[in-house]
Write a structure and sequence with these properties.
alpha/beta; 8-stranded parallel beta barrel; 3-stranded antiparallel sheet; 15 helices; 15 strands; about 15% strand
Length: about 475
């Protein structure tokens, strides 16, 4: 499958305003800590615009997410009209030959559940009740699902890096609790989906990350039972899997080595010789599941997986000036297409026989006050697309069973507190048009990224390797 990826809060609009459904970003929008999401790109009111554009690219899949806050806006019941809206969207996908890939949770929850939902013991059960409502309505039209988007990023951004509400900093213990609950939620979601549709294909997609505890560990826990690993063996097995994970990656530099040692020391699993204070309710959920393996396909989101490269000294040069942040800006992510081929091979080697999907992959550039900035490294989106789809093809030719690729994203959207980062194949002029701005025919850098993706999809399907050559 070839597709484009989107997320509800980032494209729908109509959230967190007066009289609108509210999610866990409400308070940050109200106090001005982040840019208000507003109309986003108006997808909720005009989904046909996005679906027509995706179909015109030659895509045969469209990834979307359901906003929990829209379906359950007040905690007293289900908004049936909103649910019917999502049914209409997935039917719109099918009418255009787009296989819908539906995500149940993409970083957001209803405001009435609070900003610290994933620290609460009842969070997985709350999610399971919501999942039952959505899956019951959509399962007749939807076979492909993501339960929880990037649970590793959710925990890190919320409790360690302070970028998501409520903005915790260096809360590694809180992050571990959140990950435990998110893993439980995935298992409950997996079981719910297969109850409603036994032939479903279900995954969760981590953002690729070199630190074992914040990526591969989560997948290993979901695979352990199917590999015959009992609960009493889990810590020794995790220690061995950690060793194998790092053995398959490049030798780290000093900074990366330090981060690996620190994350191992703080790990909630593994043979550390000290008591593990973090809850292990995820193991209870896995033991109780009627399924030996609660993962049908291994989903990955590939941007830059090397943890140490994400840090910068404040005042570093960036597109459009200097940045005071101690971390790298999204539009400065280094490009390593060959790394995608290697990463797919590593993940396949650790889970032989399991199909792989690249659920997200894309490049960011910056737009500020209507001005588009080029990237410091000179990359543009057509070149990025050629390099990364060539990397996927190289992995397939090496025997890695990759069966899906979704580009992030179809259109410039709300990037978690700001409209400056732009990932879209299609740019948006936010100063013109109504309800989210006017779509451009190019990307935000003025490049024909849509045309390039269309050309690459057609060429790969026909077996024409010359499409990877620059014009």
């Amino acid at each position: 499958m070839f597709g484009v990826a989107t997320a509800g809060f980032q494209i729908e609009g109509g959230m967190n305003g007066p009289g609108e459904p509210a999610n866990n970003w409400l308070a940050w929008e109200q106090v001005g800590r982040v840019t208000p999401s507003g109309d986003a790109v108006g997808f909720w009111d005009r989904p046909e615009e996005s679906l027509d554009r995706a179909a015109s690219l030659g895509c045969d899949s469209f990834r979307l997410s359901v906003e929990w806050a829209r379906v359950m806006p007040d905690g007293h019941g289900v908004d049936r009209a909103a649910l019917a809206g999502y049914v209409a969207i997935v039917e719109g996908c099918r009418e255009r030959g787009l296989t819908p890939l539906v995500t149940l949770h993409h970083f957001t929850n209803p405001a009435w559940l609070g900003e610290d939902l994933w620290l609460r013991p009842d969070a997985p059960a709350r999610f399971a009740a919501y999942a039952r409502v959505v899956v019951s309505a959509l399962a007749p039209s939807v076979r492909h699902w993501v339960t929880v988007n990037e649970m590793n990023v959710m925990a890190l951004m919320t409790y360690v890096l302070g970028e998501f509400p409520p903005g915790g900093n260096l809360g590694f213990a809180d992050a571990a609790i959140a990950l435990d609950n998110l893993l439980c939620a995935h298992v409950y979601g997996y079981d719910t989906i297969h109850d409603e549709r036994p032939d479903a294909v279900v995954t969760t997609n981590n953002a690729c990350m070199t630190l074992y505890e914040y990526d591969r560990l989560l997948v290993d826990l979901l695979l352990a039972r199917s590999l015959g690993i009992g609960r009493a063996e889990i810590d020794d097995w995790v220690t061995d899997r950690r060793r194998r994970h790092y053995a398959l990656l490049a030798t780290p530099g000093p900074g990366e080595g330090l981060l690996r040692r620190a994350s191992t020391r703080l790990a909630p699993y593994g043979s550390t010789g000290r008591p593990q204070p973090t809850p292990r309710r995820a193991l209870d959920a896995l033991d109780a599941s009627p399924h030996d393996r609660t993962l049908d396909v291994l989903g990955i989101d590939y941007y830059d997986p090397v943890a140490a490269r994400h840090f910068r000294f404040p005042g570093h040069r960036t597109a459009g000036g200097r940045s005071a942040a101690p971390a790298r800006e999204l539009w400065d992510d280094p490009v390593d297409a060959g790394g995608l081929t290697r990463w797919l091979g590593v993940q396949s080697a650790l889970a032989p026989g399991l199909p792989l999907w690249v659920v997200e992959n894309g490049m960011c550039n910056r737009v500020r006050d209507g001005r588009s900035f080029g990237r410091l490294d000179g990359w543009d989106r057509p070149r990025y697309l050629r390099a990364h789809l060539a990397a996927v093809v190289a992995a397939v030719e090496a025997g890695v069973p990759v069966s899906g690729y979704w580009h992030w994203s179809l259109v410039d959207n709300y990037e978690w507190g700001s409209y400056e980062p732009r990932f879209g194949l299609y740019g948006v002029d936010r100063s013109r048009g109504d309800g989210g701005g006017r779509w451009m025919d190019t990307d935000a850098m003025g490049r024909d990224a849509p045309g390039e993706y269309r050309r690459l999809i057609a060429g790969i399907r026909s077996g024409d390797a010359s499409v990877f050559d620059a014009d």
